[in-house]
Amino acid sequence: MRLPKLTPLGIRALRIPGVRTLGPGSVSSLLKIALDVAYWLLALITGILIFVFIFSMFVPLENLDVTVSDDSGGKALPLTRTLLLFGVGAFAAYFGGFMLIVRNLRMIFRTLTVGDPFHPSNVSRLQQIGLILAVVTGGVWAAQGLVATRLAEGVMETQGLGDLLTPGFSVMIVLVLAEVFREGARLRRESELTI
Q1: pLDDT at 27
Q2: DSSP secondary-structure letter at 23?
Q3: Least crowded by CB within 10 Å, which of 24, 54, 58, 123?
Q4: Who has greater pLDDT, 112 or 47?
Q5: Between 119 and 8, where is the model more confident?
Q6: Cα dist. 101→3, 64, 88, 175, 192 in Å?
Q7: Considering only CA atoms, which of 99, 125, 98, 101 is closest in space to residue 111?
Q8: What CA–CA distances, in Å, run from 44 to 11, 40, 41, 139, 148?
């Protein structure tokens, strides 16, 4: 019985025989197809929400209510144009932000499918992903805080700074990965010059 080979950190190498991770026909090319589908789905949702946002500027809102509820009960609020535009605009910005993240991921995976993971432009793509993720996270946090304090006071709890820990950690990981890719691109450039 053979034991699995361990890497320097003591983690088993997960390799499946006959399955490539980079290049044409690899796992990265399958993931690129999944990202393509997700991108066009997000683009469709964002387009529909933008259309609804524009349409909601003109739709009459007489005698319409919206109910904000939780497990203990709810609160009925009159549906105003400002509330409707805020809600639809927030959802459009949320889906649009993730559409931009997936767009950058598609371009990164395009370089992976041709076998060039340390392409110099992947650094800026990862930085853009980190920045967009930070803006989306901050926007969601601010919007939920606004709803909890202004619209659904007593029904929804306000978010604390602790709710930003996981998303903030994710943003930092993406930005560190961008620097790893920068170093990989630099090393690749140096090795091409020495040949």
Answers
A1: 85
A2: S
A3: 58
A4: 47
A5: 119
A6: 40, 35, 20, 13, 31
A7: 125
A8: 41, 6, 5, 21, 29
Q: Are 134 and 178 in contact (CB under 8 A)?
A: no
How far is C-alpha 161 from the chain's CA centre? 20
Q: Which among 58, 64, 181, 163 has a CA at the least distance from the CA of 124?
A: 181
Task: Kindly state the percentage of the chain with pLDDT values over 90.
Answer: 39
Judged by DSSP in three states, 99 sits in helix
Confidence of residue 47 (pLDDT cuts 50, 70, 90): very high
CA distance 151 to 174: 34
- Provide the token pair at 115: 């076998």
With b meaning 16 or more CB within 10 Å and e meaning fewer, what string describes 158-187?
eeeeeebeebeeebeebbebbeebbebbee
> What does the pLDDT average to over 158-174?
85
Measured CA distances, 105 to 122, 134, 148 (Å): 9, 16, 33
Q: What is the DSSP string of 108-128?
A: HHHHHHTT-TT-THHHHHHHH
